[in-house]
Amino acid sequence: NAGVTQTPKFQVLKTGQSMTLQCAQDMNHEYMSWYRQDPGMGLRLIHYSVGAGITDQGEVPNGYNVSRSTTEDFPLRLLSAAPSQTSVYFCASKEATAEHGYTFGSGTRLTVV
Amino acid sequence: ELKVEQNPLFLSMQEGKNYTIYCNYSTTSDRLYWYRQDPGKSLESLFVLLSNGAVKQEGRLMASLDTKARLSTLHITAAVHDLSATYFCAVDVGTYKYIFGTGTRLKVLA
User: Which residues of chain B have a CB within 8 Å of the CB of A107?
Assistant: First the structure.
């Protein structure tokens, strides 16, 4: 199993550009989440999903869209990139049991100039 | 406003010493998770705490949960350099929606 795969690993965008961060998991996990990590602020939840077709907002959803058309994929879309969205983005997935926490991808480092 | 606060934020300690990292949270929850992150890497699951009074131990690390006090601790015994990392707690606030603490950056000095 590949686990949680995020692409790309690095990206530089210009202000105003849009892009999609890809996330795929091959563990048949129902739950998936997107976090951003900024220095001194820990990880903040952007959006999460409890299954295909169901998404909900997290702590910092503004400027981001998500969809979950399949169990495997949970892409994160930046609609119009801003320098404040420069961050490291982590996707994570988990099965529907409390005994195991989220499994994280390797992250995407995004810079908006 | 939901808060998950860790302290200290930074911890520099000598090898062989003991110390405790604290995680306080402001909502009702009996599910708390600890993660480790090495510089430039992803997060690795350390402990899963699912009830009041839960205690888990792995090597030199021991985690506990007091749901009534809304407090979890991560205790480090006889620290070694390999434990240098950033440690995060995360609270399940419902339906596997995790809110993370700010992290504690631990540096163990030889």
Answer: 42
Torsion of CA B38, A107, B95, A81, to 10 degrees: 130
pLDDT tens column, B13-30: 999 999 999 999 999 999
Please name the residue of chain A whose CA is at the shortest distance from the CA of residue B46: A101
CB contacts of B41 in chain A (<8 Å) are: 106
Cβ contact B20:B76 at 8 Å: yes
Q: Which strand (E) or helix (H) includes residue A93?
A: strand A87-94
Angstroms from A24 CA to nearest CA on chain B: 16
Q: Could you read off the pLDDT of A2-41 as tens digits, one per residue? A: 899 999 999 999 999 999 999 999 999 999 999 999 987 8
Residue type, A24: A
**Is B102 an 8 Å CB contact of chain A?**
yes
User: Average pLDDT, stretch A83-99?
Assistant: 95
- Can you tell me the distance from the alpha carbon of B9 to that of A110, in angstroms, rounded to the nearest whole number? 25
